[in-house]
Amino acid sequence: MTRQMDHAPTGQAHIRHDWTNAEARALYDLPFNDLLLRAQLTHRMYFDPNRIQRSQLLSIKTGGCAEDCGYCSQSAHHKTGLKASKLIEVERVLAEARKAKEAGSTRYCMGAAWRSPKDRDMDSICAMVEGVKAMGMETCMTLGMLTPQDTMRLKDAGLDYYNHNIDTSERHYDKVITTRTFADRLDTLAHVREAGIKVCCGGIVGMGEETFDRVDMLVTLANLPQHPESVPINLLIPVKGTPLENEGEIDPIEFVRTIALARLLMPASTVRLSAGRTAMSAEMQALCFFAGANSVFAGETLLTKENPGEDEDSALFRRLGLESLQPGESCERQNAEPV
């Protein structure tokens, strides 16, 4: 008995903001081949499937964070041996950004271990944004919670993206973080949107959550009034001294399913294969790209954690026939429907 295959509709996939958890879970639970086929066909409606954006992330202020995020080596609540540092100098940030651009990155992300930025630091933060943007790179910041005033200053400096992950589902959230609420994170995302800055928002898998939580996290993002333009999906890197240091590894197939669901629920968003790639085989990463991931973080470190280096990424891209975006290029299809 032969089974009739579903075919993707012609043109663009309809972008929705009214997903139910049951609908999303039904997609997640599809036979693996069917799920990946749907995700890849959807991906091709919006993006060149063989172009990948490389981003680089620099920790501009490390350690001593007042938040108690259970996964984070930089929390002052955890004994990880990481010493707190002050905000680094603007010129040092710009020098590192130049190196990143020369190595092929087209987006530069800067992260500070803060609950929220202080007024005294905003002049330096804005100077970093202006300097990186002048190099022709996309700019992204992650600084914790923001006020409307903070977001307007970043917008005036030319910030392209602001990263603020929701991390997990609302149900699982207080098992990971207690010093700020799930609603606090959504408030910051609203401030970013109101200021006209693009949103980079995703989460972390492998933190002891259930499948329901991974699906619910993505449904929360997909049902925002506007989808995040960038959706980073991180694989937990257990850090000794943190509450999640003994969490078990997630099944690689489940991780790929999460990538595919992100692509199906948010078809026009860039899906970023983020932290945890050092624990992924080349085959697992290849499946993630097939499932719809079209961006990676490059460089040997990701904040305080190890990351595949430029040579390793270049070798993988060659094996898969993938090309890196060049400055000013986009892998979006010209007729893509707006989010």
Give the helix level as a range of percent.
Answer: 25-40%
Question: What is the residue-averaged pLDDT?
Answer: 88
- Please count the helical segments: 11
Specify the structural class.
alpha/beta
Could you describe the 3D structure shown?
There is one protein chain. Strands 1, 2, 3, 4, 5, 6, 7, 8, 9 and 12 form a ten-stranded parallel sheet that branches. Helix 1 crosses helix 8, helix 2 crosses helix 9 and helix 9 runs parallel beside helix 10. It is globular, with a radius of gyration of 19 Å. It contains eleven helices and twelve strands. With 339 residues, the chain is α/β, with parallel strands linked by helices. The protein has helices at residues 21-28, 32-46, 90-102, 119-134, 148-157, 170-173, 182-194, 211-222, 252-265, 282-291, 310-320; strands at residues 51-61, 107-112, 138-142, 161-163, 198-200, 203-205, 230-235, 270-273, 295-298, 301-302, 305-306, 323-324. Residues 1-10 have low confidence and may be disordered.
What's the gist of this structure?
This protein is α/β, with parallel strands linked by helices and 339 residues long.
What structural keywords apply?
alpha/beta, 10-stranded parallel beta sheet, 11 helices, 15% strand, disordered N terminus
Q: SSE layout and pairings?
A:
Elements: H1 21-28, H2 32-46, E1 51-61, H3 90-102, E2 107-112, H4 119-134, E3 138-142, H5 148-157, E4 161-163, H6 170-173, H7 182-194, E5 198-200, E6 203-205, H8 211-222, E7 230-235, H9 252-265, E8 270-273, H10 282-291, E9 295-298, E10 301-302, E11 305-306, H11 310-320, E12 323-324
Parallel strand pairs: 1-2, 1-9, 1-12, 2-3, 3-4, 4-5, 6-7, 7-8, 8-9
Antiparallel strand pairs: 10-11
